[in-house]
Amino acid sequence: MRIDPNMVPSLLAELQQSQVQLNTALQQVSTGLRVNQPSDDPTAAAAMVQNTIETGDLDQYTQNVSTSLSTVQTASSVLSSVVTSLTSAVSAGTEGANGTNNASDLQALANQVQGILTSVVSAANTSVSGSYLFGGTSTATPYTADPASPTGYTYNGNNDTNSVAIGDQTSVQVNLPGSQIFSAAGNNVIGSLSSLVTALKGGNSADIETATTAVDSALNFVGQQQVFYGNAETQLNSQETFLQQDKVTLSTQASTLVGVNESTAATELSQAETDNSAALAAVAKVLPNSLLNYLSPPS
Amino acid sequence: MGGLSTALLIGVGGLDAAQGALDATSNNIANVNTPGYTREVAQFSEVPENDSNSQITGGGVTLDGLMSIRDELLNMQINQQTSLQNAADTESSSLQQLQTNFTSTGTDIASALTAFSSSLVQLSGNSSSSAAQQGVLSAGQNLAAAFNSTANGLTGAQATANEQVPDTVSQINSLTQQIAQLNGQLAQVPAAENGGTTKDQLDQAVQQLAALTNISITQTNNGETITTGSGTPLVIGNQSFSLQTATGPGGLNEVLDSNGNNITSTISSGTLGGSLNIANQVIPGFLTQLNTLASQFATAFNAAQAAGTDSNGNPGAAFFTGTANLNSAAADIDVGLTSTSQIAISSDGAGGGNGNVANLSAVLTSPLPSGESPENSYASLVFNVGAAASNASTQSTAIGDSLTQLNTLQGSVSAVNIDEETANLLRFQTAYEAATRIVSTVQVLNNATLNMGSGSSF
To answer: What is the least distance, in Å, from the CA of A188 to any CA of chain B?
Structure first.
């Protein structure tokens, strides 16, 4: 059978094909990516859309976790200082109720408890980067002095709470409203302190004792509320660990989807280089050969 | 009668034949690189025998003609594959350009969705921070811009494909005219030549036509009858029928036959088929998906925004605008908010509340009316674009391989082999030299005969 004498087109086609392979191999090695455009692997490119968005969210969740942790820890330490203050108020009250104090002693104790009241109110008004920790979702100063109020203070915040997203479908409540800590019905911290001041000023031992018992009960109540912040802190810490693991999972998934296996890529590159030189050598060898080379020129 | 004159005639016949064969060989060598040239082979036949005085002598050789060697079936297969390959190439190059809009560049929709989603997560953690609020507003603007530029990239590619249609149609018309003219000339070519160089030119023109659109060819007494795939005549005998273009709905070009009938949908391959498919089917499909996503996402996000309260205490105003027209939602989408105070962060109306941020965030992962979340819906669009581009280029490679094989087959039949022609050159040179020797020998013999009887010869 006659063969196609014209080898140039098929040689050039092979040469071009080997150059395409060489380019692909070079691109994969240099970018470290197997998928550089959607057509390289449509399924992987589509899955990467989700992966990229999740990775972006994940970084932000991690930031939210650390911001929330600092908020929760600040709130928790504020409550600890309140507990300490209340403990000294209880001692002051107990001392005032033992019946051995003269008027000036009681006045001194009353002043001490008044000081504690001021410091507790100022603790309740703590703000972190412009937001009040115990004002609910309100931006108003939580407690302000109000002569009309029986406790001497009014709560200006609301009863709502904020939750921060720390994962897909996961969020953590980061605050308790002040009304639930400092002026709760039945365990009103500010009210009980204020009653103790009044009782100490009045000098009636029985009244002082009742007021002291109320402060003591408020002290226990604040201790219970502190548990909320402890729980939030635990949840945030475990979420941080989870997010770190999730990040590893996502980046493993990304490299499986679009990354290139380096040893495979290197092998493919060297294979493509060999193919390309073989194709070039074939072109160089075949083209100059013809019968004319072997005939003597006509005399 | 037999005699020296017979020998002379035979010798001259041999000279003519060898000369014809040398012509064919030199023409073959000269056209070794001419596209569409098929090699010619000199056809010899014996001249009938002479029977005189019961003596039978051969009559010599005669040159019937120079026959072109071609395989019509292969030509038809090559035409078909050429049509398919050009369609795949046209689609592939358009889709390769188009898919850059969907590559992760930082300004594509996936990157913008990522930034928008994480800006909302950030807002959840720092709802009162003006930087976080500004982050959401800017990310929203970037997302709208990414929708706009992707939509523009798609409509741009569509316009490019659409503009190629009239150009291609006018190339088709000039080729069909040329083919009709060659059909007329073909009738004048002697049958022994198998079409000769006229047929070479005709085949070449037909192959160019096949690259532009799908055709079907019938061999008739009047040359080749060429119709479009659906049977609309393009060339009958020496008459050609021009196609026309008209602007149809949406500014897209339609192809009409010579009677004005719309035959757009029947043009399936060739450059024209590829351009029409891209402009009329492929890109509109992507655009519909993108516009649906833009419109449904904007509606869902605006609804979440309306459920909350902004920092002025008002119900959230529409975050995204411009998506009322579903046909251009992605191109027109814009951010309607002018200030960060309009973001509906709070669900209770209090300035420090972030209750509605979770609702805003949820829009990105909750199913839209289309059944998919915005993220997944965009991911399927990326898949569709990638798959279309990958299919077109795979198809182009596969057809290219089969076309290379067909061309090799055609080359084995029709292409000029320099070695073969060089050998033929030597062969016919020898034959020519031998024939001249016959003539000169007869001349010497004639002289000898004429001088027979004169004294000098004895």
So the answer is: 24
